[in-house]
Amino acid sequence: xxxxxxxxxxxxxxxxxxxxxxxxxxxxxxxxxxxxxxxxxxxxxxxxxxxxxxxxxxxxxxxxxxxxxxxxxxxxxxxxxxxxxxxxxxxxxxxxxxxxxxxxxxxxxxxxxxxxxxxxxxxxxxxxxxxxxxxxxxxxxxxxxxxxxxxxxxxxxxxxxxxxxxxxxxxxxxxxxxxxxxxxxxxxxxxxxxxxxxxxxxxxxxxxxxxxxxxxxxxxxxxxxxxxxxxxxxxxxxxxxxxxxxxxxxxxxxxxxxxxxxxxxxxxxxxxxxxxxxxxxxxxxxxxxxxxxxxxxxxxxxxxxxxxxxxxxxxxxxxxxxxxxxxxxxxxxxxxxxxxxxxxxxxxxxxxxxxxxxxxxxxxxxxxxxxxxxxxxxxx
Length: 380
Hints:
Blueprint: H1 3-14, E1 20-29, E2 41-42, E3 44-57, E4 64-68, E5 72-76, H2 89-100, E6 108-114, H3 124-139, H4 146-161, H5 168-175, E7 180-185, E8 190-195, E9 200-204, H6 216-233, H7 245-251, H8 257-281, H9 286-298, H10 305-315, E10 320-326, E11 333-338, H11 340-358, E12 363-367, E13 374-377
Parallel strand pairs: 4-6
Antiparallel strand pairs: 1-3, 1-13, 2-7, 3-6, 4-5, 7-8, 9-11, 9-12, 10-11
Helix pairs in contact: 2-3, 2-4, 3-4, 3-5, 4-5, 6-8, 8-9
């Protein structure tokens, strides 16, 4: 799927030419899970699956229409946008965000095409928000930097859609570069591009999750409660990731608060170690991935039997160095790294064995670090 496919679907559906086309990728996080909304560090890459949004100004001032190849159609009035709880919120929320900045939005006609699986923990919502934001900015001639569009998209996710997430997904979709991982400090929004040439095996368990219905928001509240208790002992503490594991243990927090805090404080330090390794050798230490997964499984309690199965199974494959769940958990995807030939050869057996174990067919593919969001066609 590519930009030509998006243009063709627009022509077939709308019967006209789009005025702007934008695309944005999904991401996998190499390490640094559940640290972003706790002020910690993360290390995502963009993957080779993207979402395209094409649009034009509607010929009449009546209503707007958006059509997705996967999710059907939705109509709305740009002058009376309201949250519906449907997929279209990710688009109408971006429109409302532009309006809040004083932009006069016309009624629009738009299409969405994607080869990025939804509900898999690959940030399909961020890709949709970012591609929409870039397409709208081109349509209304707003020259905004990608960082600003990422912040607009994040506010849509948290304030309009209602998921209390951190900024990682939107920043990864916006700023990642081909052949590099994005080292992001989520408290300061400082970024650094880190060389990342290795292939990553992505294993989609085909067990969908939704952050709106999972335990994600509960974990976020637990982390905030843990931070509040730690700040009673250390008022200078800015965020949970800034605490040390020793500091957490000394506070004698009740379970599960201690477990959540221990994961966050150790995980953000694993990011630093993995970044240092990539800079030095260009390869990722597998033990850090296994440590991260075990912490997510036992301390953050966001893994599943399917994700645990993959990590255990991958650890037994010659040439695989490490594996872990990626994304929020509670379903979705896991990753493995190692020798390219080993990752390629392992795929058929992984698919077959998983089908036998769970009666579900996974989606498995290799990806390298790819480019972030971009305007494909239209005025800048």
